[in-house]
Amino acid sequence: xxxxxxxxxxxxxxxxxxxxxxxVLRVIDAEGQQAADFVALCQAxxxxxxxxxxxxxxxxxxxxxxxxxxxxxxxxxxxxVLEDTVGVHDANVPACDSTRYGVDFGIEGHRNxxxxxxxxxxxxxxxxxxxxxxxxxxxxxPVTADGRMQVTDPISRAGDQITMLALQDxxxxxxxxxxxxIPGNGLKVTPIDIVIADAQxxx
Amino acid sequence: xxxxxxxxxxxxxxxQTVRVxxxxxxxxxxxxxxxxxxxxxxxxxxxCLYGFSDVRPDVFLSVHxxxxxSNSYLLVPGMRLVTNRRRPMMxxxxxxxxxxxxxxxxxxxxxxxxxxxxxxxxxxxxxxxEIKRLGLAPPKLPDPVNLFLRTQLHRDGRxxxxxxxxxxxxxxxxxxxxxxxxxxxxxxxGIEGNDRTAPLELRVAEDLSDL
Lengths: 203, 211
What we know:
Structural class of chain A: mainly beta
Strand order of the largest sheet of chain B: 1-12-3-10-6-5
Number of strands of chain A: 10
Order of helices and strands of chain B: EEEEHEEHHEEEEEE
Helix content of chain B: 10-25%
Number of helices of chain A: 3
Structural class of chain B: alpha+beta
Largest interface: A-B, 33 and 33 residues
Strand order of the largest sheet of chain A: 1-10-3-8-6-5
Number of helices of chain B: 3
Largest sheet of chain B: 6 strands, antiparallel
Shape of chain B: globular
Radius of gyration of chain A: 16 Å
Number of strands of chain B: 12
Oligomer: heterodimer
Helix content of chain A: 10-25%
Strand content of chain B: 25-35%
């Protein structure tokens, strides 16, 4: 079997794509230190979405590991983590949006993850409010001693990747996070690569 | 009332108290500048809090934006609880408990039934019904701020549910910053150590002495 699809997500932009049940999705940090906001919805019923909050409750953890299943808003597993060369991801920060730049930094008109994610999902009839909370792959938000969220850069290097098995037919979107103001992408926004295959061996 | 330079910008509103029975939900309207006190009226209470702007139906309290606004996984006094547009909706001003959750989703009836909590209505189901009854029209059901829900967050990311320990009379007080309707759930959370239900009181007043 061959790789089904490869997608380059340009730096600071987004892409939307489908992954079938049983297929494998690999997300690659092409140049390193780049967060990839990732969302997924069930193809059959897009009111059921990948949910960081339900995943936290299932795993009893802010973070996930290889072998863990990522849960839907109806407590069903949607993805299983097969490989992870980094082991550091975030599932606790909402997507940056126009208010992130406008309210927090006084910058209007900045590219943002919510727009990047919604851009392609809109063709499925979804509004910005329908875009799920993201898993921010490669993003680094360690817990400080007093329970705060440290703002820092990813530890991922060029070519680092996470590979997940789809447990349902999914519509997915990935944004190469355009945050270039605070630590989060090393102050240099770079592309993300996506590979979809029918089996892990084909990757 | 807020101490405005040119004096009060509206007439004072009479204080009110709304009781939330164990396993149920209730809503209360709060004006800008008023205080909202949420009181545990029984042991081991948990109060799942939702807020909706009275001005814009697409603006609501967002637990996720609240975390990132303050770069904090925990809710502590002085923190602003913000909307999905990153604007402060309220500030936690007093807290007799010191343990709350900003990470877990609401229970559903289906979730509770699958875990052996027979006959319990889920928080999400009850709040959705109350939203409809009140004529609110949010674009989605947000995730809640789980007041009094006790967990231990470890530095490796583990979220360890703890025995709740909330006592009758424990409370939090918020200063509310935009006209809002709050819905508070006393439904079962389905989280071990925090899965007993107890009644709550919602008290709203202009000044601390009236709460």
